[in-house]
Amino acid sequence: MKQTLEYSKENKLDDINKTNKKHKRQRNKVSFGTSCTLVPTSSHPNLSSNIGSYTFTEKHDYYKVSEDLPPSSPPQIDDYGNDEYLNVNDSTSDEMLYKEFDVVEKEEIVDTDTIESATNCIIEYMAITCRNAKQTIESIKKYLMEGILGSYDDRVVTRVVEGILESERFFGKLKRSKLDANNKKVPDLYYYIPQNDSNMSRMLMYAPHAKRVRQCTLIDAQYYFKPIAK
Asked: How confident is the model over 97-151, as pLDDT tens digits?
C-alpha cells in the first residue's frame, strides 16, 4: 500500500512537471503563420500596448505580437541591442523624421580685404555722406548693400557690420534703452572717433571732414511727438 502511494506521488509530480513544460513551450512557441517580433520592454515608455492595429501583450520581459500581420508593408521593429535606439519603421516614419531636421545653410565667408574696405566705407559714410554723425546699424547696412556688400545676403551684412562696429576702438556707441511712440526699443547709435584710429593715413583723410560729436548729445534720450489723448 505504501509503495502504491509513493508511486502515485511520483506519477503526480511527473504529470505536473510535464504540464509545466508543455505550458512553457506553448508560451514561448512562435507560429510560422504569425509574424511575431520580441522587443525588450525594460525602458521603452513610448511603446504603448497598442501600436496601430497590432496588439502587443506583455510576457515577462518582452512584448509579443498576438495578431497576424498583413502581407504588405508590415511595420519593422529594429532592436540594436540598446533600448535607447528603438526605431519603428513604416511608410510615414521616415517622412516624419526628415521634417524634424532643418536644413542648415552654409554661411558666406567675407574675406579680410572686403571687411577692410567696408570699414573705410562706414567711416566715409559717417564723416562725409551723412548729415548726422551718429548712425544706426540699419542705415549703415543699407548704405553698404547699395555698394560694396551688395552681393551678400542681409544676414551676412548684418554680421559684418556688427563685428566692425563692436570690435574697433575708433567707433563709439551710444547704447539706448528708450521706447518710441510705438513702444519699440530705439536702436543704438554709432559714431566715428578719429583720435582713436591707428591708421594715420585714414585718420588724416577723414578727420578734417568728420562731424564733431558733442558730449552733451551722448545721452539716452528719445524725443517724439505724441498727441494728447482726449
From this structure: 444 434 334 567 888 899 999 999 999 999 888 888 889 999 999 999 999 899 8
Domain boundaries along the sequence of the chain: 31-104, 112-217
Contact call for residues 205 and 192 (beta carbons, < 8 A): no
Q: Where is 25: in which H helix or E strand?
A: helix 2-28
pTM of the predicted protein model: 0.49
Q: Judge contact between 29 and 42, C-beta under 8 A.
A: no
Query: Three-state SS for 171?
Result: strand
Q: Which amino acid is at 210?
A: A
Pick the CATH number of 112-217 from 3.40.50.1860, 1.10.10.10, 3.20.20.70, 3.40.50.970: 1.10.10.10
What CA–CA distance (Å, rounded) separates 116 from 120?
Answer: 6
Distance CA 12, CA 8 (A): 6
Could you tell me if 179 and 166 are in contact, meaning their C-beta atoms sit under 8 angstroms apart?
no
Rounded Cα distance between 130 and 144, Å, is: 13
